[in-house]
Amino acid sequence: MSEIEEILQKITELRKELENLIEQKKNLIDPEVVVASQMLDSILNEYNKIVKSKTDS
Questions:
Q1: Which of 21, 41, 42, 54 is 20 to 30 A removed from 15 (C-alpha atoms)?
Q2: Residues 25, 32 contacting (CB under 8 angstroms)
Q3: Coiled-coil region(s) at which residues (predicted)?
Q4: Helices and strands (H and E) in the chain: how many
């Protein structure tokens, strides 16, 4: 599996986790929801950086 495929899989997992937490907590500022959102943001930033570096090459 390529690096991008691994990251896309992780994005999907984190997105599902975030959706589940939001459904459970019913509160977008719950600390667990915020942490999950930050984790997803981080991996999305990593994905964007990789895609940008590949298109710049």
A1: 54
A2: yes
A3: 1-31
A4: 2, 0
